[in-house]
Amino acid sequence: MSRKPDLSLDLRGEHCPYNAVATLEALAGMAPGQILEVITDCAQSVNGIPEDTRAKGYNCLTVEQHGPLFRFVIRVPG
Amino acid sequence: MSFTEFRTQYLVRFWSPIPALLSLGVASSCYFAITGTFWAVTGEFTRWGGHIAAWLGFAPQQWSYFQLIGLKDSPLERIDGVMIIGMFAGALCAALWANNVQLRWPTSRRRLVQGLIGGIIAGFGARLAMGCNLAAFFTGIPMFSLHAWAFMLATVTGAWIGVKLCLLPLLRTPLRLDTVPSTLFADTAALARRARLQNRFGLLIAVLILGFAASRFEVSLVLGLAVLFGVCFGAVIERGQVCFTSAVRDLWTTGRTRIAYGILLGMAVACLGNFGAIALGATPKIFWMGPNAVIGGLLFGIGIVLAGGCETGWMYRAMEGQVHFWVVGIGNVIGGTLVALFWDELGGVLALPYPKINLLEQLGTGAGLLASLIGLALAAGLVYLNARRHNQRHTAAASLQENLAQ
Predict the structure, then answer these.
(1) Angle between helices B109-128 and B42-55 in degrees, nearest 10
(2) What is the complex's ipTM, to 2 decimals?
(3) What is the pTM of this model?
(4) CATH number, domain at A35?
(5) Which residues constitute the domain of residue A43?
(6) What distance in Å separates the CA atoms of residue A11 and residue A19, rounded to the nearest whole number?
(7) Which of B105, B165, B185 to mutate to test the interface with A (most CBs of A within 10 A)?
(8) Are B253 and A23 in contact (CB under 8 A)?
(9) Touching check for A1 and chain B: CB below 8 Å?
(10) Nearest-CB residue to A51 (from B106, B195, B258)
């Protein structure tokens, strides 16, 4: 899975619940099939973003940990 | 398993919150059986506020709140005090070994003010109810004290108000969206260098805290063990990212369930453990079932959602270098100290005239335990129904969109 993300959302410095809320807002504005990359520096989002996006029907494809930074790749189904 | 595999699997990758919370339930029962007190933090933070007030020339020893919770000696001679030092060290060690310590600055000054105000409200609410997400919730319900049930329900209600406040346009920041993928992850060599450095710092902290534990064992067995329990508590909440705020708040934002189930299961385990400890002669800590528990819970729920973290949440996040949560911690100490300062007015009306209700005495020993477990199961059912409500709403919206698209 190496398709380039269509949009990248930088959430560094934000804490919960803004990470999950902003991710869902960004996804809501995207077209089916598009891919969103999310960057956070709040470790809690490792629990939150995958659970929330999956519950809302998006495909959370990867969760990566790069030291203090976290990267998520989420696909809008369709 | 090689050491590298072990490190990736357990020291770097985060733990699943449900087993983490189960182990916290077991550990908190052992802690109660050994020390005779519960795993709690805000009372000690309020004592720190008392020490600061004393340096500023006040006489907090004479305040009735400190006569109630005690303000003898220094934090280094108190069970709660050394346990908290252990928690900070455990969380710091865990974060360092995951290469997860970095100064993280908030996105705006407005967030810092929000954190400070939220921290003050949460600290005030917690101390008014004689506990926080621990003593009036996670370790309060397993004490079979009715006030903890009132506090828990009020906290969930307060969190709803907190969510409404948090999502006001005033507190939102614009989305930073870009069409180009992030380039932040290009330098893997730098990341590996960072990891080596943080490993060494982690080792240093581990040696220091073990030395500190040894020095406390010289004073007494209980004090030494309290340090070690603190290290476990701190490490597990950081590794599992155990966020009580998320558990209550995200019932209202997205209908999350995992951490909430974990907390309820952890409390069920602790109920059994504490029941055993009490049967063997330990004295449960019971507090007044008065308006203080309800008002305190409401304020606590609002405060933790505004601040983004509760007492245990800010502790591990502060160790990860999240500057926002240093401010939340300061807010907590201020809020708790305000309760201490005005306790004669507050406690006299809202707490002291009301009875301390121990469910094991009120309902009978077996029935009290059973009622607590049934209550926890009911709460889990409500969490489940709430998640279904959220997802149904989503499914309904999605099918509407599909229909419109066709």
Answers:
(1) 100
(2) 0.92
(3) 0.94
(4) 3.30.110.40
(5) 7-75
(6) 6
(7) B185
(8) no
(9) no
(10) B258
